[in-house]
Amino acid sequence: MAADGGTGDGATQQMWARGRYEAVGERIAGVAAELVATVDDLRPLQGRDVIDLACGTGSVALAAARVGARVTGVDITADLLGLAAAKADVAQSEPITWVRADASATGLPDDSADVILSSMGIIFVEPESQVAEIARLLRADGTLGFTSWVRAAHNPFYDPIVSVLGRPRPAGADHSPDDWGVPDTIHARLAGDFDTVEIDHRVHTWRFGTLETALHFISEESPMHVDVLHRVSEMQHDRLMSAFEVALAPHTDADGAIAFDSPYVVVTARRR
């Protein structure tokens, strides 16, 4: 079942529709599975009303449905919701409601969720409005669970952008997605509505069979990278791709495969 709760910001939709997000979702599906397992251990999801915010292609939503939750998946990008619904059909999942809406303005009823989940999703949304929406949707004693990338000293997916273009931030914004990976920031943002905040530090390993495969992922598949490359000049595009190649090269093994670690956190909190 699908519904439209509002189209949100057109530029955001356009960015996430670029490239081939399912390639990203497939590579970080393990992170989504760990999030669902962590929350299910904390508060069994069977029979619970669960909302997956910024659900992308539905990895969290499907994992929650598999353990018996009643799931609603919300995303701003219609193309991604279509892919999520198709995955659910193939998996013969329990029914999932798919809603096209901004994660910070879902249009869903107050107090409609026992659990809200998001894997590498809500971190891209303006945080004040996002936390307010989560607090509105969650019932008292409800559980929030999400994952966020953690800013690393060296990141071959990000360092080249900074070196060539400078540190990007959304226009007019004073936040960055990996701010949600900073414990003090997590506690400060959640303090007004949540307690029992737990932060578990973990590592995701990116793996590519060849350097060429990794560069293809950047130039053709990862929406954020494709969007950046689309918006720059031809000269900057070439400089960026050269910088990515240089950044990835030290992570090449004797067989030519690429592997490097990206730290992330699994965060859980209780709605007061």
TrEMBL record:
Pfam families: Methyltransf_11 (PF08241). One of its GO terms (biological process) is methylation. The keyword Transferase applies. SUPFAM superfamilies: S-adenosyl-L-methionine-dependent methyltransferases (SSF53335). One of its GO terms (molecular function) is S-adenosylmethionine-dependent methyltransferase activity. Residues 52-144 form the Methyltransferase type domain. Keywords: Methyltransferase, Transferase. InterPro entries: Methyltransf_11 (IPR013216), Methyltransf_Superfamily (IPR050508), SAM-dependent_MTases_sf (IPR029063). This is Class I SAM-dependent methyltransferase. The lineage of its organism: Bacteria, Bacillati, Actinomycetota, Actinomycetes, Mycobacteriales.
